[in-house]
Amino acid sequence: MAISSGTALVGVGASGASLPSLPDISIGEDSGGQKGRDSTESWERKGEKYVEHAAKADASCVIASHGHVQLFLAQVPCRSLRRYIFAGEDISGHTAVVSLVKVTMYNRTEAIDFKHLLDRPASGDITPLGADVLERAGITFTGLYYKSELVGSTVVAAEAEPDGGPWTAASLKKMAAVALAAPDK
């Protein structure tokens, strides 16, 4: 499965313009037998429009991570990992790409420890879905526009990066924060 850069997206953003399409992101079957899915489902919150391009349940948190985050997950396994990639548009019509991860640990204490590590700058990360393809398109997740929350034993984290328009840091951080409420599939 892949998302074609020419795929028409569902709906339009607040400005009335179509949201951008993302480059091809292959999310087929991974080595753990988990399948991803392509999607053009959309949702709105607080005047911002989000279109989900891809979602994937990963069989291994370790393989999908790097740095100290990966070392932690090698010692304290996660129960599940879901990764998503969204195109988003704010109320002014500026577009961004948003990565969302949901990491469920076996208990709340492990989740708290994991969140503290994930929130620390330069500690590593869960690799955003389609990161290699997005980098070739000039989009790199820097961690500057990041937000996370703890929901039971699940750590939900989102990062946003601009894809067009004059973004402010506050606007991108808000987009990441709003993405935390993405509906579960």
Strand and helix map with partners:
Blueprint: E1 36-38, E2 42-45, E3 48-58, E4 65-66, H1 67-75, E5 78-89, E6 95-105, H2 108-119, E7 124-126, H3 131-136, E8 146-151, E9 154-164, H4 169-179
Short description:
It contains four helices and nine strands; from the N terminus they run ββββαββαβαββα.
Protein model, in words:
The chain has 185 residues and is of the alpha+beta class. Helix content is 21%, strand content 34%. It contains 4 helices and 9 strands. The radius of gyration is 16 Å and the shape is globular. The two termini are 18 Å apart. 38% of the residues are buried.
Which keywords apply here?
185 residues, globular, seven-stranded antiparallel beta sheet, two-stranded antiparallel ribbon, alpha+beta, 4 helices, disordered N terminus, single chain
- Relative strand content: 25-35%
Which structural class is indicated by helix and strand composition?
alpha+beta
Please describe the biggest sheet, giving its number of strands, its sense, and whether it closes into a barrel: 7 strands, antiparallel
Radius of gyration: 16 Å
Q: What is the number of beta strands?
A: 9
Which word captures the global form?
A: globular
Q: Helicity range of the residues? A: 10-25%
Q: End-to-end span in angstroms?
A: 18 Å
Show unreliable segments: 1-40
By oligomeric state, this entry counts as: single chain
Order of helices and strands: EEEEHEEHEHEEH
**Average predicted local confidence, pLDDT:** 77
Helix tally equals 4
